[in-house]
């Protein structure tokens, strides 16, 4: 409920600039994909978006540190971040749903299972299996092999779970006012995030170089890369956010009882961690 | 080392801060164009949304008239089939994403803070961002019409492989434009949900909120739940088109039907996104002009929530003929029919609200009453379509076109017009010209029914949708539809005229512009000043 001092910012130039920058970036991506144009337009847009985000967050940080935000504003940010993470969850749900549908229905039906069995007439010799190493049509070359989940993926799982724990320790330390402890554990979290990204890059290299798991390698490659790819992007974004938090802790930002930016970053990181657990189970293990 | 801590969380505004230059909320807004580009005010952003939506309504309408002009007579007269397909596609996309949805968001921007006694939206800068993404998105989308190979030509549902393997090159731009529009919707919905949950005046419980606020709360939830799924599915399309993946190609082990499942998991809640706020508007207007409180307020809230939840489990009723297993046909048939129950609750509650009311028939009420009657027709044809074996006959015929236009035009669009006539006095300080509004109403009602009612018959007789030519036996019905469409289209110029005249002048409206209107927005002056409820009002529960 309202306390009567809700801060309504005056005009801001960042939203309109951000919109235009996003438009330029999307246009640039389209030009590059469709007409093989150079990536310069896209990069201009990207730099624009990143700058706008920087300035926009700078304003918010200044307002917050200036004491313009009351507890009601704090709740607005909490609802905002919470629902944003829910929207992210639904984004990943679409890809997980696609994976489940493919594995449970589409591939077995291609092999003749099910009462309809019509699609089985297309490629009568197709034998369904998962991971799909033998795409129905000869034009699509399947993967030559797949990873063992118990090597790099397991290492990455341990890294991410550990990073969630180190982040929680850092957060607890911040709440207790032990800023140095907070800084050290947060540094550890960022390093673990970087390790994850590095190992994921290594895995992608192996996928392409040794296993023939590529975007073009049929539905296994497609689901593998869209799920791990978007997760990887989220880890990169999360690592950047945590790095910003680290800088802010270093600069003396955040009070014991008022540090929602840190909390939101931590929510985001835990969410990315949970998505990975789902990935590890359904993409790698099962 | 001891880091310097920031000042601890004072509650009062401070002008001596780092952000001091931005602190005062009252300095005069910048003049001219910049004011609209940079604004963080919910009323100005609401107006921007509404104006944008009106422009897009006419652009989408012109596309519709191209379709109806071509279909006036059998044979190919005006446009080639390729362009006709682009028109059906663009008409749908523009009307859904650029006309109806932004209109409701504009109404939400204007009215939710006023109805719950909030000073503004919860996140005002984000609000501005949500709006300005839309012109960017739809400029990009409309520009595809001028690209080599033409614009999207696969229908607004963009089924794979029509939209992947056989699509024009501009499809990639279409996908990117839809991504921007999706970001706008998600951010807008997050803002609305945070506003409703966090910004209500002291004393206003959830069950005290006007129905428009309730329906928007639930709509915002739907938006946040399904727009990301749309983003996911168009991303898969983008990958299939540009990076050689096989999501929707059986040759690589994928499945084009997967596209339909994902699309309709978004698409069915999407159609409720376009109708739930309309329910809210009608639930606010009917009690006002019947001069009675809404009958069954709690059941209205629960019915809205039930419709929203059910909307997640009915998506495959759009796919009855795609080759679903029998169990799926049955499940989706029955779950779809279940939606008739909460929807019926709503219809009966509106009728019961009217019962023994002291009714007057101003233009907002006329549009609302037409909504109840004509939406019910669309609801019933929906029930017919829900019957899976019958749908094998109706599928992809003009019967489907008649059905969804009955729920969207005299449904969603009429509700938006009712809302505009209802709240114009609050926005401008003047009543709209009632005579003009009544002309607009009656011409619209006649036009809408003349356009869409014959489509039921041409559809049941077997006329397929999305074709530029048809067999001779459908000629009469199509000629009627085309006449009606032009009548409806040109009647909307009266709407624009009415709004423009109302902005420029007219009979002065008092704070409480309508006799039977009791929500919080009627306690602030008409026109509403730029800033309202900066000190939250004390909410008093109206005593019946």
UniProtKB/TrEMBL annotation, chain A:
Transmembrane segments: 12-34, 40-58, 79-102, 150-170, 182-199, 219-247, 267-285
UniProt EC number: 7.1.1.9
Signal peptide stretch: none
Domain Heme-copper oxidase subunit III family profile: 2-286
Gene Ontology biological process: aerobic electron transport chain
Coiled-coil spans in chain: none
Group of enzyme by EC: translocase
Membrane topology, record value: Multi-pass membrane protein
Compartments where found: Cell membrane; Membrane
One Pfam family per UniProt: COX3
InterPro entries assigned: Cyt_c/ubiquinol_Oxase_su3, Cyt_c_oxase_su3_dom, Cyt_c_oxidase-like_su3, Cyt_c_oxidase_su3-like_sf, Cyt_c_oxidase_su3_a-hlx
Molecular function terms, GO-annotated: cytochrome-c oxidase activity
GO cellular component: plasma membrane
Keywords: Membrane, Translocase, Transmembrane, Transmembrane helix
Claim: Cytoplasm is one of the keywords in the record: no
PANTHER family membership: CYTOCHROME C OXIDASE SUBUNIT 3 (PTHR11403:SF7), CYTOCHROME C OXIDASE SUBUNIT III (PTHR11403)
Similarity section: Belongs to the cytochrome c oxidase subunit 3 family.
UniProt protein name: cytochrome-c oxidase
Species per Swiss-Prot/TrEMBL record: Vreelandella zhuhanensis
TrEMBL record, chain B:
GO CC entries: plasma membrane; respiratory chain complex IV
PROSITE patterns in alphabetical order: COX1 (PS50855), COX1_CUB (PS00077)
Manganese as UniProt keyword: no
Membrane topology note: Multi-pass membrane protein
One Pfam entry name: COX1
Domain (Cytochrome oxidase subunit I profile) ranges: 36-540
Record-linked InterPro entries: Cyt_c_oxase-like_su1_dom, Cyt_c_oxase-like_su1_sf, Cyt_C_Oxase_1, Cyt_c_Oxase_su1_BS, Cyt_c_oxase_su1_dom, Cyt_c_oxidase_su1_bac
Name of protein: Cytochrome c oxidase subunit 1
Function: Cytochrome c oxidase is the component of the respiratory chain that catalyzes the reduction of oxygen to water. Subunits 1-3 form the functional core of the enzyme complex. CO I is the catalytic subunit of the enzyme. Electrons originating in cytochrome c are transferred via the copper A center of subunit 2 and heme A of subunit 1 to the bimetallic center formed by heme A3 and copper B.
Pathway: Energy metabolism; oxidative phosphorylation
Originating gene: ctaD
Catalytic reaction equation(s): 4 Fe(II)-[cytochrome c] + O2 + 8 H(+)(in) = 4 Fe(III)-[cytochrome c] + 2 H2O + 4 H(+)(out)
Main location: membrane
Originating organism: Vreelandella zhuhanensis
An MF annotation (GO) of this entry: metal ion binding
Location within or outside the cell: Cell membrane; Membrane
Transmembrane segments annotated in the record for this chain: 48-69, 89-110, 131-151, 171-199, 211-239, 271-289, 301-320, 326-345, 366-387, 399-424, 436-457, 477-503
Keyword annotations: Cell membrane, Copper, Electron transport, Heme, Iron, Membrane, Metal-binding, Oxidoreductase, Respiratory chain, Translocase, Transmembrane, Transmembrane helix, Transport
Sequence similarity: Belongs to the heme-copper respiratory oxidase family.
EC id: 7.1.1.9
Single GO BP term: oxidative phosphorylation
Claim: Acetylation is one of the keywords in the record: no
